[in-house]
Amino acid sequence: MAKKVNAKREAYQKKQEQQGKNVVMWIIGGLIALGLIFAIWTSLG
Prior knowledge:
Elements: H1 2-44
């Protein structure tokens, strides 16, 4: 029984880790996009 609980816990941790990485990548991508938009906006003005 304990092995089953540990397996579920490990699978959940891996899933959470992957979701966390996805969130970080989205944040970084958003900051890069905003930086590019700002650079274009300042060069046009």
